[in-house]
Specification:
binds adenosine-5'-diphosphate, Helicase, Ruva Protein, domain 3, five-stranded parallel beta sheet, binds magnesium ion, 21 helices, 505 residues
C-alpha cells in the first residue's frame, strides 16, 4: 500500500514542502530510502525502525521503499524521522486516521520525540504557503508559539502522536504568544558611561551605529577597545518585531536558540581568533549551518585582535561585507543566508602595542610591525569605514567629576539619525546609509564644489580607492544626519576623511 505524509526541508532559512511517500510490497525484505537524503537522513531508517518497535507497534517485514519528493531538494537533518514513521505505519495499515498535518521531529530509539533545528523558519514558510496544521516535538513548542495563525501540536513521543491522530487522546494546540522587543533595553552588562574619556572613539562609535558603518579600533593594549566594542549593542535601536523574527530564524537553523525560543536582543558575536572560514561564514559537510556573519545579522560581529585571525578566514568576510548576504556553495546547490551586521574590529598598532604612543616606547622592529600589519589585507581594511585610534586614558579622566554620557542618551541620537535615513531611503530597500548603492549615493549625497575639493585632496594624498571614496561619502552623509543637516557640509566630509587618515595605512 502507498502512503503520503507532508514534511518540510530547509534551504537556508526558507522551508520547502517535502512529501514522504512510502510503498510497501510483498517481496524480498528490503528498506530503501531514496530522494537525495544526506547521511543523517539515511540514519533515520534505523532510528525509525527501533522507535516503531519500542512503541508497541510492528515494523513491517516486506519490501519498503521510501521516497522523499521532490528529489532535487537535498534532505538534511533528522526532522524526517517522525513523518517517516507515520508514513510507514499508514502504509502497513496500522494507522487509518486522517494525517493532514505537517510532521517534523527526530525520534529516539525508545520512540520519544526529540527537538529539531529550524522549526521557526519552517513554520513561517509553511504558513505562508498555506499549511495550517502541524505536529512537532514538545521541546520546540516555545519557538513555535510565536507564529500566529497556525495550529501546532507539540507532543512528546511517537505513541502520543498515534493516540492524538486516532483521537484516543486529546491535546490542546500550542498557545500563541507574542513577545515584546521593547523589553530588550537595559539588558546589557556594558554602558558608555562606564568608559572614561575616549571622547573621539565614542563619537566614532555613535557614527558607526547611526549609519551602520564598520569600525576599527586600534591602539595600545588596555585602553578600552574591547570595552568600547561591547557598548555598541547598547546604543543600537531595539530590534523591530520583523527583525527579531528574522534573527530568530537564523539562530533556529543554527540550533542556538535558548529555552525562550526567540531572540529579542541584537546579537553581539565574538568568534575566537582560531575560528575557521566555515565557522565565520557558514557551511559544513552534511548540514549547512549559518556562520558567525549570519548569527551577527542585525547586530555586531566583533573581531578582537584582528591580526590574530587566520588570513584566509578574514578574506572570506569580503563578500558578506559588500553584499550583506552570504552564499555558501557546495555540491548540489547554493544556500544564501542574510549577513547584515556591523563589523567592529580591534587591533594593536604593533606586536608590543606601543607603536605611535606618546608615552610608551615601542620595542618592535620595522619588519615585525610590517609582518603584523600585513596579516590584515588592504581590501579588508578598505571595507572598514572608520579607523579610530584609541589612546591611553589620562588619570584625570578617572577622577574627573564630569558625568559621562550614558548609552541611553547616545541611543536617542542614533535613533533620530536612523529615522532621518529611513524616511529618505524609503522604497529603496534599505534603511541605513551604509547600505546605499551607487544610485542612492548619486541621488542623496550631492557634494558642493567645496566638499568635492576636500575629497579630491584626500583621495590624492591618502591614495584612496574608489571604494574608499564612496564609503567616505556615506559616512559623511551619516555625520550630516546626526547633525540634522539636509546637505553634506565641508565639516562633515572632513570628519569622515579623518577616519581614513590614520597611520594604519
Ligand atoms: N577608558 C576606560 N575607562 C574605564 N576603564 C577602562 C578604560 N579603558 C580600560 N579600562 C579598564 O581596563 C580594562 C581593559 O580594557 P580593554 O577594553 O580590555 O582594553 P583593550 O581591549 O584596549 O586591550 C577594562 O576592563 C577596564 O576595566
Ligand atoms: Mg581587547
Amino acid at each position: 500500500m502507498l502512503s503520503k505524509i507532508t514534511s518540510f526541508a530547509l534551504n537556508g532559512i526558507e522551508g520547502i514542502p517535502v512529501e514522504v511517500e512510502t510503498d510497501i510490497n510483498k517481496g524480498m525484505v528490503a528498506y530503501d530510502l531514496v530522494g537525495l537524503p544526506d547521511a543523517a537522513v539515511k540514519e533515520s531508517k534505523e532510528r525509525v525502525r527501533s522507535a516503531i518497535k519500542n512503541s508497541a507497534l510492528r515494523f513491517p517485514v516486506n519490501k519498503i521503499t521510501v521516497n522523499l519528493a521532490p528529489a532535487d531538494v537535498k534532505k538534511e537533518g533528522s526532522q524526517y524521522d517522525l513523518p517517516l514513521a507515520i508514513s510507514i505505519l499508514k502504509a502497513s495499515d496500522q494507522l487509518s486516521a486522517e494525517c493532514d498535518f505537517v510532521f517534523l521531529g527526530e525520534l529516539a530509539l525508545d520512540g520519544a520525540l526529540r527537538p529539531v533545528t529550524g522549526i521557526l523558519p519552517v513554520l513561517i514558510s509553511a504558513r505562508d504557503a498555506g499549511f495550517k496544521k502541524f505536529v512537532i516535538p514538545e521541546a520546540n513548542a516555545n519557538e513555535a508559539s510565536y507564529i500566529a495563525g497556525i495550529e501546532v501540536y507539540a507532543l512528546s513521543s511517537l505513541s502520543e502522536v498515534i493516540a492524538f491522530l486516532t483521537g484516543e487522546k486529546q491535546f490542546a494546540p500550542v498557545k500563541a504568544r507574542s513577545f515584546s522587543v521593547a523589553s530588550a533595553s537595559h539588558s546589557y552588562n556594558s554602558d558608555m558611561s562606564l568608559v572614561k574619556g575616549q571622547k573621539a572613539a565614542k563619537r566614532a562609535l555613535e557614527i558607526a551605529v547611526a549609519g551602520g558603518h564598520n569600525i576599527l579600533l586600534y591602539g595600545p593594549p588596555g585602553t578600552g577597545k574591547t570595552m568600547l566594542a561591547r557598548c555598541i549593542p547598547t546604543i543600537m535601536p531595539d530590534l523591530t518585531f520583523e527583525e527579531a523574527l528574522e534573527v530568530t530564524k537564523i539562530h533556529s537553523v543554527a540550533g542556538e536558540l535558548t529555552e525562550e525560543g526567540i531572540v529579542t536582543l541584537r546579537p553581539f558575536r565574538t568568534p575566537h581568533h582560531t575560528a575557521s572560514a566555515v565557522s565565520l561564514c557558514g557551511g559544513g559537510n552534511s548540514k549547512i549551518r549559518p556562520g558567525e556573519v549570519s548569527k551577527a545579522h542585525k547586530g555586531v560581529l566583533f573581531l578582537d585582535e584582528l591580526p590574530e585571525y587566520a588570513r584566509h578566514a578574514l578574506e572570506c568576510l569580503r563578500q558578506p561585507l559588500e553584499d550583506r548576504v552570504i552564499t555558501v556553495t557546495r555540491a548540489g546547490g547554493a544556500v544564501t543566508f542574510p549577513a547584515d551586521f556591523i563589523l567592529c574590529a580591534s587591533m594593536n598598532p604593533c606586536p608590543c602595542g606601543n607603536f605611535g604612543s606618546a608615552t610608551r616606547q615601542c620595542s618592535c622592529t620595522p619588519a615585525q610591525i610590517h609582518k603584523y600589519r600585513s596579516k590584515v589585507s588592504g581590501p579588508l581594511l578598505d571595507r572598514i569605514d572608520l579607523h579610530v585610534e584609541v589612546d591611553g586614558v589620562n588619570y584625570d579622566d578617572f577622577i574627573s567629576e564630569e558625568r559621562e554620557e550614558t548609552s541611553a542618551e547616545v541611543k536617542e541620537r542614533v535613533e533620530r539619525a536612523r529615522a532621518v535615513q529611513r524616511e529618505r531611503l524609503e522604497g529603496e530597500g534599505m534603511d541605513v546609509n551604509a547600505n546605499m548603492g551607487e544610485r542612492q549615493l548619486k541621488k542623496y549625497c550631492a557634494l558642493s564644489p567645496e566638499c568635492e575639493k576636500i575629497l579630491k585632496n584626500a583621495f590624492e594624498t591618502l591614495h584612496l580607492s574608489a571604494r574608499a571614496r564612496s564609503r567616505i561619502i556615506k559616512v559623511s552623509r551619516t555625520i550630516a544626519d546626526l547633525d540634522f543637516s539636509e546637505n553634506i557640509r565641508p565639516e562633515h566630509i572632513l570628519e569622515a576623511v579623518s577616519y581614513r587618515s590614520g597611520d594604519l595605512k
